[in-house]
Write a structure and sequence with these properties.
The complex is a heterodimer.
Chain A: H1 3-21, E1 30-38, E2 44-53, E3 56-61, E4 71-74, E5 79-82, E6 84-89, H2 119-125, E7 128-133, E8 141-144, E9 146-149, E10 167-172, H3 175-185, H4 192-220, H5 234-243, E11 247-253, H6 256-268, E12 274-278, H7 286-292, E13 296-298, H8 316-322, E14 327-329, H9 340-349, H10 355-360, H11 364-369, E15 387-391, E16 400-406, E17 409-413, H12 454-458
Parallel strand pairs in A: 1-4, 1-5, 6-7, 10-11, 11-12, 12-13, 13-14
Antiparallel strand pairs in A: 1-2, 2-3, 5-15, 7-9, 8-10, 15-16, 16-17
Helix pairs in contact in A: 4-5, 4-6
Chain B: H1 2-24, E1 39-48, E2 56-63, E3 66-71, E4 81-84, E5 89-92, E6 94-99, H2 142-149, E7 152-157, E8 166-172, E9 181-190, H3 203-229, H4 240-249, E10 255-258, H5 262-275, E11 279-284, H6 291-297, E12 300-304, H7 311-314, H8 322-347, E13 353-355, H9 364-373, H10 378-385, H11 387-392, E14 410-413, E15 424-429, E16 432-435, E17 456-464, E18 467-478, E19 481-489, E20 496-500, E21 502-507, E22 510-519, E23 522-533, E24 536-543, E25 547-555
Parallel strand pairs in B: 1-4, 1-5, 6-7, 9-10, 10-11, 11-12, 12-13
Antiparallel strand pairs in B: 1-2, 2-3, 5-14, 7-8, 8-9, 14-15, 15-16, 17-18, 17-25, 18-19, 19-20, 21-22, 22-23, 23-24, 24-25
Classes of the chains: A alpha/beta, B alpha+beta.
Pfam family, one (chain B): Amidohydro_1
Domain Amidohydrolase-related (chain B): 327-433
Keywords (chain B): Signal
Chain lengths: 462, 558
């Protein structure tokens, strides 16, 4: 080998090893044979095979054969559906609320993703492959969320963050932000009017901020410029990014009036990427939601846990859907996330949706709301290999997820997995502490220090 | 609240000492503490000059705080005080690369009337980069004594406070008459802890705020440069935060970031990658999964000098179901992995050192021995305590090895330093000799079978800065273990209070237990550990945040 060749060879080796240490997220190959394939977007096929290669759905059809080295799984008598997507979750976050200001657009939930939280595995056991790890609802404008892929067993938080998902941000209207800031601490917003004022003032400030930087950058490009840089403010920069269509808003909301208010604010500022969360009174403004937004992500049948959610109906999802709004059903809970397929099935009892419409509520519709519908949310060739195999139809009360795949890699197997799936064990705790109330409603977690009185603490859920 | 009480009594004690000192001693040396000579010779000792170097019989000459010679045939000047080193092993003094020994957190300033929690003043929100550890450091603190007694001669002290507490300083743990300062403005301390009830309240907020402070420091510097060299430029707003952060942005000093586990390591590293500052990570306890990441990051690494409590393993019961047994097994596995981490980190080629923040210096050697038993080589262990630490804090020119011209910071032990039987006899700091009592080790083999009997009624006395106090310790056998109570002067004012003892353990001749004192509505843990011999016990009482104090007890024969 001459010197030149050797150098090239070494460089190649080096680049290989570099690639290795900056490894791409793991991707697998598998052939799932002979199942009932619920594609959600293209109908249902019996006795059909799904071939995933290198993390991507390569082929859906009959009598496919496994390329060499690819494992085959017999799904005879079982149902194969796309991985379930939860558009509202707080699983795998070390912090949920930076509650200390009415706008905290600058905070990033990606900074506090915890890939060791057992909730991820529990979600996988419920067939959920993607969750939207959201900031809480203590602020009018909360932090930027993280869209997670449930790759259980990763050490690096970056490897469970869906890196090709667009940016999203949490907004919140109504009782939570007014309670934390107005009633709890005597700051704006004290009322729904205050919430709107915070939003409009925030966006106007963001426009000024954007202009100040544009002016500065323009001036700076001139020779001999003595232009002074504006103050750096990631909070306003993030709001400006929303105005520029770079971020999808996911807004915690309940009442029709506040939903309609935000639609108007969004229209005034030219914002099109907007999804409503919870949206219990969405059924009253369903046509408006359908026309101006990316739809609503709702509970199947949660209501009456506080004043602003008394006027609710289990028909909400179906009404929104029939009005043409993109509608999804979410969990907002580490417990509900384990059986979102049951939650979706409730739209058949309350609204008579078809199987495909009901399944869309937990697959392709939340994918659309997260801006990832071109990658996941249905079983289609070319999409990412996120798949669940069910014993029993997923909308049946007797459905039990058997295996869950993300990017063609199996992360859950009801038969083969060890009983103890914890990744991190404390060396100093004989029995891990179990907190009975911790797993539910984390929307208002980490806000405790802002409340002085026990009564305020008492009302903090959701 | 309790802290204030303690401080008041501390102050009283110091004042007493001060007055009595003045009355007794002669005018030429009003303190009476000045040593007769500043020249010392350690003769014929086993000198371990650097990590990995073979021990060699040699003498060491010290004058005015500097090592003047190390060798076999040194001529010893007449004024030298000789320390016979014949049975002693000499090592370079240990260096605590991130310490809060002797540091007292300043009181939080009062909130202004127009306080707004969403945009608090920096000082209240814990952003105080202009503060210096020197202003918070007290060489006479018992924490400093504890650290020195454990062989540490130099500490990189960091201030205590909020997310950016301030600047560190390099000190020797020397004479109480000196400032002991080697260098101020060594590093910026930072952590991920939020302020309470205001912005930034959590780790996400802290990370966002850190970016904000950093970027605006950068921009302020640009504006200042423009203002300094041009007319017609508006006055840039200069504030103490940006001024003090400026050296960090210039990469003139590193950020010492406090992190506990792998996730926090990654968080600090992500800030570093984004912003570009120099980084030293300190306080690591759980880091096995990021050893490669640490290696590739170029950041300095300081492990917390502590091993986890093994009581969760010791308390495991025999008579349990298979499912519980499997869980026990995982706890044991987690424990074994934790204590083996340091060895793996060293094997991966990461030259780490230690931080004692949050650790007990009294247990430092035990922690080192455990790490060594779990795979850390003695060479790497010593390097972590000496040369690596000196490198990370930029002091290798003056410290870390036993060499001509280096500061006279030495540890003299009765045997090889990491042997369980060895004890530290002298610690020399800055040329000043501190002597420690050598206790006769009891020969009781190993294992609990030879443990001493500790049950009974004990009368104890303890010396704290608040004065001497005492009470009764009652210990009874309960099954395989013990239960008991302790009485003490009620911190609320009058009479005696009592607490239940927990974690009572006997290992060889050592009795240890923990109790909680309730003072001013806060509960504070007191760790007691002592050597039992017949009906007497001698040991120390460790009170979190305040250091450790001697305790002695005698058993009532009945």
């Amino acid at each position: 080998m001459n010197m030149k060749k050797r150098h090239i060879f070494l460089a190649l080796l080096l680049s290989l090893s570099l690639n290795f240490s900056w490894a791409q997220t793991p991707k697998g190959s598998v052939l799932i044979k002979n199942g009932t394939v619920l594609t959600v977007t293209n109908g249902t096929y019996e006795n059909t095979d799904v071939l995933i290669q290198d993390g991507i759905i390569k082929k859906i059809g009959q009598n496919l054969s496994a390329p060499s080295g690819v494992t085959t799984i017999d799904a005879t008598g079982k149902y194969v559906m796309p991985g379930i997507i939860d558009a509202h979750s707080h699983v795998a976050l070390d912090v949920v609320n930076e509650a200390t200001s009415p706008i905290v657009a600058e905070v990033r939930m990606k900074d506090v993703v915890n890939p060791f939280e057992i909730g991820i595995y529990r979600a996988l056991a419920g067939g959920v492959t993607i969750s939207h790890a959201m900031h809480g609802s203590a602020n009018v404008v909360g932090g930027q969320n993280a869209t997670l892929k449930h790759r259980w067993g990763m050490d690096d938080p970056a490897e469970i963050i869906m890196q090709d998902a667009p940016r999203t941000i949490k907004f919140a209207l109504g009782e939570n932000p007014t309670r934390v800031h107005g009633r709890g601490n005597g700051q704006q917003p004290r009322s729904r009017m205050g919430v709107e004022a915070i939003l409009r003032n925030g966006f106007n400030e963001a426009l000024q901020y954007k202009k100040a930087w544009e002016d500065y950058n323009k001036a700076k490009s001139q020779k001999g410029s003595t232009a002074i840089a504006p103050i750096y403010n990631e909070r306003l920069q993030t709001l400006a990014d929303i105005l520029d269509g770079k971020i999808i808003i996911h807004c915690h909301s309940y009442r029709a009036d506040e939903i309609y208010m935000l639609i108007n604010v969004a229209r005034d500022f030219g914002i099109k990427k907007l999804v409503f969360q919870h949206t219990n009174e969405g059924f009253k403004v369903a046509p408006e939601i359908a026309e101006y937004t990316m739809g609503a992500s709702v509970f199947a049948d949660w209501w009456a846990y506080k004043f602003e959610v008394y006027y609710s109906t289990a028909f909400n999802a179906a009404i929104l859907q029939k009005n043409g709004a993109i509608t999804s059903i979410n969990s907002d809970s580490a417990e509900l996330i384990r059986h979102l397929y049951h939650e979706a099935a409730k739209t058949q009892r309350y609204g008579g949706l078809t199987d495909e419409e009901a399944l869309a509520m937990i697959t392709i519709n939340p994918a659309k709301q997260l801006g990832i519908e071109d990658k996941v949310g249905s079983l289609e060739e070319g999409k990412q290999g996120d798949v669940v195999i069910f014993e029993g139809h997923p909308l049946s009360s007797y459905a039990i997820p058997q295996m869950t795949f993300v990017d063609g890699i199996k992360y859950f197997d009801i038969k083969e997995d060890a009983d103890d799936q914890r990744q991190r064990i404390s060396p100093t705790e004989a029995v891990e502490p179990i907190l009975l109330s911790e797993e539910d409603h984390r929307c208002m977690q980490d806000t405790e220090h802002l409340f002085e009185t026990a009564s305020a603490l008492f009302q903090m859920n959701q | 609240m309790r802290k204030t009480l303690w401080k008041a009594s501390l102050f009283g004690l110091f004042m007493m000492g001060f007055f009595s000192g003045v009355s007794v001693h002669a005018q030429s040396d009003p303190t009476g503490k000045k040593s007769i000579t500043n020249t010392y010779a350690i003769t014929n000792a086993m000198v371990h000059s650097s990590p990995g170097a073979e021990g060699k019989k040699a003498s060491i000459l010290i004058k005015d705080g500097v090592i003047l010679g190390v060798g076999e045939n040194l001529s010893i000047p007449a004024e030298a005080k000789v320390i016979a080193g014949d049975s002693l092993h000499v090592y370079a003094g240990f260096i605590d690369a991130a310490s809060r020994a002797g540091i007292t957190r300043p009181e939080d300033p009062e909130r202004p009337k127009d306080f707004v929690y969403s945009s608090p003043p920096d000082e209240i929100a814990g952003i105080t980069p202009w503060r210096s550890a020197v202003d918070q450091f007290d060489i006479e603190s018992s924490q400093v004594n504890d650290l020195r007694k454990a062989g540490f001669t130099m500490a990189h002290v960091l201030p205590d406070g909020g997310m950016i507490p301030g600047k560190g300083a390099l000190v020797v743990l020397g004479d109480s008459e000196s400032t002991n300062v080697l260098k101020t403005n060594t590093a910026l301390a930072a952590n991920l802890n939020g302020a309470r009830g205001m912005y930034p309240g959590t780790t996400v907020g802290v990370m966002a705020k850190f970016r904000d402070v950093y970027q605006n420091t950068k921009l302020t510097k640009e504006r200042m440069a423009l203002f300094a060299s041009n007319n017609g430029v508006s006055r840039p707003e200069i504030n103490p935060t940006y001024t003090a952060m400026s050296e960090v942005v210039d990469r003139a000093i590193p950020v010492f970031f406090e992190v506990e586990d792998d996730l926090e390591v990654r968080r600090a590293l992500s800030l570093q990658k984004e912003l570009g500052f120099q980084l030293v990570l300190f306080g690591l306890e759980e880091y096995e999964s990021v050893i490669d990441v640490l290696k590739g990051s170029g950041a300095g690494v300081l492990l917390k000098l502590q091993i986890p409590d093994d009581k969760a393993i010791k308390n495991q019961k025999e008579d349990v179901s298979d499912a519980v047994k499997a869980q026990y097994e995982r706890v044991k596995e987690a424990y074994d992995k934790t204590i083996a981490q340091a060895g793996k980190l060293a094997a991966a080629g990461v030259p780490f050192a230690f931080s004692t923040i949050g650790a007990k210096p009294n247990d430092a050697m035990k922690a080192m021995q455990t790490m060594i038993e779990s795979g850390l080589t003695e060479k790497d262990a010593l390097a972590a305590l000496t040369t690596n630490a000196a490198n990370i804090i930029g002091a290798s020119r003056i410290a870390g090895t036993v060499e001509n011209g280096k500061l006279a910071n030495l540890v003299l032990s009765t045997g090889p330093i990491f042997d369980a039987e060895s004890q530290i006899k002298h610690v020399i700091v800055d040329g000043k000799v501190f002597d420690y009592e050598i206790k006769a080790k009891k020969k009781n083999g190993n294992g609990d079978t030879a443990s001493v009997e500790v049950a009974g009624n004990w009368e104890y006395k303890s010396e704290t800065p608040a004065g001497s106090s005492g009470g009764t310790i009652t210990i009874q056998k309960n099954g395989n273990g013990y239960e008991g109570t302790i009485t003490y002067d009620d911190p609320a004012g009058s009479g005696k209070a009592s607490s239940t003892l927990s974690d009572i353990a006997v290992s060889g001749s050592t009795l240890s237990f923990v109790f909680e004192v309730n003072a001013g509505g806060m509960s504070i843990a007191v760790d007691v550990s002592g050597d039992v011999s017949g009906n007497t016990m001698d040991g120390s009482m460790n009170i979190s945040q305040f250091g450790s104090f001697p305790i002695s007890a005698t058993r009532n024969p009945n």
